[in-house]
Design a protein that fits this description.
Helix content is 43%, strand content 19%. The protein is α+β, with helices and mostly antiparallel strands.
């Protein structure tokens, strides 16, 4: 059994691993020491241990370090356990029962929203967004809840032209400037809404889920029957409050942090 004195060393090792994971390419030991405010001798010792265990790789010609194969294996094992779906399902179940509406967990898949989990209320409702269904992200509340917290350049890369803006019902943003205006509004508002953008007669309210780097990793959505001849401008703040609570809880469960701005 390790002693309590091993804990600080473990924390420093994990900090080094997170730093390597957060960089687009290998970094020098000096950079690691500087960014984590560690003595250089300690930094080299930690990198040596991580390299020996396979979690880091040393590139001697470059005098830099990157992630090792063991880090990839650990990440792959994490994904095989479907942690996001497992952690979200009980929250969605409670949300659907409490609000008597369909609750979803969605993620971005390119320029589409992909639905991973759906929980029906006690009185089941038939809607298009089933598990495995992909819908245009700019039209869905879940998709825009995530897009609203991405860098503008990334949004532009996902939807580079007018042809990228699929139209289903005649409602919703039809070009990048219109989408940007809507994303700015919804980011300030704290949740996203769609009123007949995907399917006539249905509306949705969604809030984002964030990872440890404050990046939008998923969104929780409530979908419900709502009929209006023209977009009526409703934002359903009472529903949004409950969706936001569930999204915050899932963010905490996965060790994430809500975006600060």
């Amino acid at each position: 059994m390790g002693s309590s004195s091993d804990v600080p060393a473990l924390r420093r090792g994990l900090a080094v691993l997170r730093l390597l994971a957060g960089r687009p390419g290998p970094v020098s030991a000096a950079s690691v020491a500087r960014e984590l405010n560690l003595p250089r001798s300690t930094t080299y010792h930690l990198l040596s241990e991580l390299t020996e265990a396979g979690f880091a790789t040393h590139f001697p010609e470059e005098k830099r370090y990157g992630l090792g194969v063991a880090a990839f294996e650990l990440g792959s094992a994490y994904l095989r356990h479907d942690p996001l779906e497992r952690l979200a399902r009980p929250l969605l179940r409670k949300l659907a029962d409490r609000m008597e509406k369909v609750a979803h967990l969605g993620v971005l898949h390119g320029a589409e929203a992909l639905y991973l989990v759906r929980e029906q209320p006690r009185q089941p409702q038939s809607i298009v967004s089933d598990v495995g269904v992909r819908l245009p992200a700019h039209l869905t509340a879940s998709g825009r809840a995530m897009l609203a917290h991405l860098p503008p350049a990334q949004v532009r890369a996902l939807l580079p032209s007018v042809a990228s803006f699929v139209d289903r019902t005649g409602r919703g943003p039809h070009n990048l400037p219109a989408l940007r205006r809507l994303l700015t509004l919804e980011r300030r508002q704290g949740w996203s809404v769609e009123d007949g953008f995907v399917t006539a007669g249905f509306a949705s309210v969604a809030a984002p889920v964030f990872d440890h780097g404050e990046r939008p990793i998923a969104a929780i959505t409530l979908t419900f029957r709502h009929v209006c001849d023209t977009p009526c401008g409703q934002t359903w703040p009472d529903l949004a409050k409950e969706v936001h609570k569930a999204a915050e809880e899932l963010t905490l469960r996965i060790g994430g942090h809500a975006a600060s701005g």
